Amino acid sequence: MTLPITTVKTIVDRIEDGGAGIKVFRLVDPDRWQLPPFRPGAHIDLHLPGGMVRTYSLCNDPADNARYVVAVKREAAGRGGSVLLHDAIDVGDTIGVSLPRGGLDLPDDVTRFAFVAGGIGVTPFLSVAAWLKRVGRPKFTLHLIARGAPPLAHLLVPLLRSGHLVVHDTAAAARPHIAALVGRPLSDVGLGCCGPESMIGDFEQATRDWPASRVHIERFVPPPLPVDPDARPYTLALARSKLEIPVAAGQTMLSALLGVGIDIPASCCGGICGSCKVDWLEGAPIHRDRVLSPTERARSLMVCVAESAEDRLVLDL
Ligand code: FES
Predict the structure, then answer these.
(1) For ligand 1, mutation pick of 272, 296, 297 (most atoms within 8 Å of CB)
(2) Which of 59, 141, 216, 277 has a CA between 20 and 30 Å from the CA of residue 122?
(3) From the alpha carbon of 53, which atom of ligand 1 is closest?
(4) DSSP letter at 90?
(5) Measured distance CA(101)–CA(106) in Å, rounded
(6) Which residue among 52, 269, 292, 297 has the greatest number of ligand 1 atoms within 8 angstroms of its CB, and so is best to mutate?
(7) Residue nearest to ligand 1 atom 3, measured at CA
(8) CATH (one of 3.40.50.300, 3.10.300.10, 3.10.20.30, 3.40.190.10) for 234-315
């Protein structure tokens, strides 16, 4: 059974050097139609040759529907997606992309923002910054912590010129304290962070007294999932296809579904990208993802990390 995966066909229109081992890919519709819209801070999945699916933040202004711009750092020790993009993808190649997902909530009652980014983690805030400037909400600061020359320098120029970007070069000075960048909780301030896990840990610590609705964290590496010593086997019942699929203790729903030929799109396999979302109908799921809101969890789960607290869980598949 193959699910109807909604992808958009794009071609690589341009590839630029982003410095620090980064390539910037500009993807366009083959006939130059507009691409589906996206929110500030949204991301897309790239469906790569060999069945790999990888998720990247969109770097361009959401008002620019003519292209999707993603920045990819070559990670030689990664899972292979970035190496493939760097070494095997060229201008003119075709790439299927998902519809854009996610993004930052930028409510009107938030009048100032502070974003903290580590290295390539600056990418989600580029589209946010472009959007904030364009809609006339210029009170924000983007703190970029990097060692040596900052990544994506050519995309940062407008923010440097407008005074919105503060670069903290840890080769020239000590790494700044995240708590000092964040400050005290204020009801009209919104925060965002994207970077390595150690930085996110410091950011979570610094914002523990902030209302959750004012804090956005974007991860590109899933946190390790704790091993559940009490994990039990259970059954997935698929309401539409009438299949009953056993899930062994400790096995993921995703692998059980893939094992019987149900093609679920999955990228991070760690509950942070949102690509493997499935609706559930009956039962008691245990959610372990970092992307769904409490409201969304009442209807959906991420099959790469969720479990079932009961013997049977019914999915809308
Ligand atoms: S594959 Fe990323 S959330 Fe499941």
Answers:
(1) 272
(2) 277
(3) 1
(4) -
(5) 15
(6) 269
(7) 271
(8) 3.10.20.30
Q: Average pLDDT, stretch 289-315? A: 95
pLDDT at 226: 79
Q: Which amino acid is residue 153, in one-letter code?
A: A
Where are the chain's structural domains? 7-98, 112-218, 234-315
Ligand 1 atom showing the smallest separation from residue 302 Cα: 4
> CA-CA distance, 82 to 188, in Å (whole number)?
38
Q: Can you tell me the distance from the alpha carbon of 97 to that of 164, in angstroms, rounded to the nearest whole number?
A: 31
Length of the chain: 317
Strands (E), 225-287: 234-238, 243-247, 277-282, 285-286
Ligand 1 center from residue 203 Cα (angstroms): 23
pTM: 0.89
Measured in Å, residue 221 CA sits from the centre of ligand 1 at 11
Pocket test for ligand 1, best of 45, 267, 278 (most atoms within 8 A of CB): 267
CA-to-CA distance for 92 and 317, rounded, in angstroms? Answer: 36
Could you read off the pLDDT of 110-161 as tens digits, one per residue?
999 999 999 999 999 999 999 999 999 999 999 999 999 999 999 999 999 9
CATH number for region 7-98: 2.40.30.10
Per-residue pLDDT tens over the stretch 53-82: 999 999 999 999 999 999 999 999 988 999
Domain 112-218 has CATH 3.30.70.600: no
- Give me the pLDDT at residue 221, please: 82
